Description:
Membrane topology (chain C): Multi-pass membrane protein
Number of helices of chain C: 13
Order of helices and strands of chain A: HH
Subcellular location (chain C): Membrane; Mitochondrion inner membrane
Oligomer: heterotrimer
Shape of chain A: elongated
Largest interface: B-C, 37 and 34 residues
Largest sheet of chain C: none
Radius of gyration of chain C: 25 Å
Number of strands of chain A: 0
Structural class of chain A: mainly alpha
Transmembrane segments (chain C): 6-25, 71-94, 106-125, 145-166, 178-196, 212-231, 238-260, 266-289, 309-330, 357-376
Number of helices of chain A: 2
InterPro entries (chain C): NADH_UbQ_OxRdtase_su1/FPO, NADH_UbQ_OxRdtase_su1_CS
Distance between the termini of chain C: 45 Å
Keywords (chain C): Membrane, NAD, Transmembrane, Transmembrane helix
Distance between the termini of chain A: 71 Å
Strand content of chain C: under 5%
Largest sheet of chain A: none
Amino acid sequence: xxxxxxxxxxxxxxxxxxxxxxxxxxxxxxxxxxxxxxxxxxxxxxxxxxxxxxxxxxxxxxxxxxx
Amino acid sequence: xxxxxxxxxxxxxxxxxxxxxxxxxxxxxxxxxxxxxxxxxxxxxxxxxxxxxxxxxxxxxxxxxxxxxxxxxxxxxxxxxxxxxxxxxxxxxxxxxxxxxxxxxxxxxxxxxxxxxxxxxxxxxxxxxxxxxxxxxxxxxxxxxxxxxxxxxxxxxxxxxxxxxxxxxxxxxxxxxxxxxxxxxxxxxxxxxxxxxxxxxxxxxxxxx
Amino acid sequence: xxxxxxxxxxxxxxxxxxxxxxxxxxxxxxxxxxxxxxxxxxxxxxxxxxxxxxxxxxxxxxxxxxxxxxxxxxxxxxxxxxxxxxxxxxxxxxxxxxxxxxxxxxxxxxxxxxxxxxxxxxxxxxxxxxxxxxxxxxxxxxxxxxxxxxxxxxxxxxxxxxxxxxxxxxxxxxxxxxxxxxxxxxxxxxxxxxxxxxxxxxxxxxxxxxxxxxxxxxxxxxxxxxxxxxxxxxxxxxxxxxxxxxxxxxxxxxxxxxxxxxxxxxxxxxxxxxxxxxxxxxxxxxxxxxxxxxxxxxxxxxxxxxxxxxxxxxxxxxxxxxxxxxxxxxxxxxxxxxxxxxxxxxxxxxxxxxxxxxxxxxxxxxxxxxxxxxxxxxxxxxxxx
Lengths: 67, 209, 385
């Protein structure tokens, strides 16, 4: 039923259907692919460090002309 | 010195154009002076190095909204005598309505400011650095401490340098809009909805007479 | 001060010359495609034809229609002229070789093109003629609707590059590959919408040359017409700037193929040359299209935008952005949290209460949106900070 309706729509409004298909394919890929990728043994590369690691202690009060 | 003169010209131009929008009899002239207001204020924002918002003024206000206004106004026959009667919109009639909505919005702002402060702001954790100008952050600070331009900038956040390698204006705006100021974004959208529905209601009353 | 003036003239004068000779090139190419000679009398091979055309236009009498609005009638061509030339400020002619290499270059270009629409509307209205008014209305309808598609394609590329700077878009292509290959379906879309944006032939309903004289600019003559004709949104100036934009976005702008073969000193001269060559290729395709295709109807023009190009562009935009999220996961935001509220397990709907349920959804729509927004904002703040 739904399949027939979609098949009819592909002939009547092909651009809308293809646009919707492309548009929904993206989020679907984002949800579906990562579990499969992890199952196949994919390890995500380390992200580029954007800062140096901060010391795990309260901040020292500044003295003198220290900026 | 030159920058001060340019700024003064832009500010005065914006104010004058705003006055002309109200004064001018021909609606086309008033729309054009509205465009001038947007142009002056947008270029003033550009000079303040808030480039993205200034250019967004050009694209959204001039490119979309004012052109729609022009579309609508050009179609009208301004020499039509009854047209001026429609233009003479009685402000006094709807004045209480306007005042009530103003009071409600202001009141709402203040209530929500004190109740939801803990949820919405992590004011001590602002990790946004200014890139271009020193006046930058204070613009978004409006709802926190009023229009307190002289207030010093809060650099004392915890991880402020995480964003250092990749900051630009749009990221700063996005981070502030969708995190700390998400609630105000919703309030603004509600205001816009009111502004869209309000004219429809007003026009409906005018035509049923 | 003087140096910046020289810089500006060094950009503007070649642009104006290029526009003048584009008209000649169009006539010559169209002539050869239709088995004619084309203009060949004035100068060598008719090379001075655009100059003589310009002089002819300037020597004509300037006519102001008596009922026209004089201020806007004079200022509208000036607005169009200046704003369209302002767009050239950000275009890079070589690596780091542009008047202003601003961070938001591509948004600046879009802003300038949206301002120049005001000039067209004013030009149509101020002549106080029905036909020019209708022409300007049609023009703006066309321009606004096709600007949407252009903006979406540009947004897709910005999503890939991660910067609004034109120079960085080109350098991204230098270090990876020109965007023509990976984003191939977007290129014809942008090309078609550029044809419509510049009102070239399959979409030139505004100034269809046999029926409507020149659309919004019917009332203009001599010098003001020359200004419009030079840098018009609808004609040659816009053609060159749009082709340069397509070139920068898809063909890599000033990039020289096999640039490692040349010395850096030579590349300074080669880069602008290759920018021009690629742009000329696109311009030739523009003229080629004019010589081959017939004009479409107005409903076809609008349908093509809203029913064909826009859905596909939106779909491609979603696809490209989600592929980017898939391949290069965003560090700060864990994307799975965004989808959490939508995943319900064991959720069944009773058909009797379905209508009431729909109304309930409508009522609670805003509330859920609100709660979702606060929820997401909390997640984002936790993740970012």
